[in-house]
Amino acid sequence: MTTDWSQERILVLAPHPDDETLGCGGLMSKAKAAGAEVFVQFMTVGDTADQSPKGFSTAEERYAEIKKVADHFRWDDWHMALPGDEYHLRLDAVPRVDLTRIIEATSPLSVARLRPTTVIAPHRTSYNQDHQVTAEAVHTALRPSDRALRHHPRLVLAYEEAADQWRLEHAPSPNLIVELSEKEMGDKLLGMELYGSQSHRHPHTRSDLTLRSLAVLRGMQAGVALGEGFHVLRCLA
């Protein structure tokens, strides 16, 4: 499978700010360099207890980080669907139909309004409840139907994150590897560094070494130096 990224309009679904960079930062760099359009739909953000030196990050800090990352990757646009502590890490309390409607039709970056050619979302096997329900809502929003009535993205992928492997029954190995250059790998690492409240030293699932190690592993599996792994959910040739 060879994709001409220059012809793609890509919609990335991220439960929280940084998931898009962890999951497909290299692909976003590659696609933008080729001439693609890249849009990021965040689902939620709020004040967060974390493992940073001060022990927490505010929503305002996270928004400032998003703006830096958006400039770095040259996104065409981004949107936050459900901001606030009412939703952050509590998306599993939101009715599935409401999440699905946001992704399918009501968001400014919805599938119906944006009409992306490629959609990239988290994988269902993540341990994080926000990731799980986002993945399920995307699955529902992109259900098969008459293409004359509803937009069908040609390519639908699920990205992986290193922390997702912390499950007894985790996903099988990705069945699509996107080769990354050293520059694209560097863009991914810098994007994660710009999320200062979420970036950590090794050993941590969001450390530079973890991200590079996963890229080395996925690249090796495809016979190249570096790669990002994805699960193909739909591909219309």
UniProtKB/TrEMBL annotation:
One of its GO terms (biological process) is glycoside metabolic process. It holds the Pfam family PIG-L. Keywords: Zinc. GO terms for molecular function: hydrolase activity, acting on carbon-nitrogen (but not peptide) bonds, in linear amides. InterPro entries: GlcNAc_PI_deacetylase-related, LmbE-like_dom_sf. The keyword Zinc applies. It comes from the Bacteria. This is N-acetylglucosaminyl deacetylase, LmbE family. It comes from Nocardiopsis flavescens.
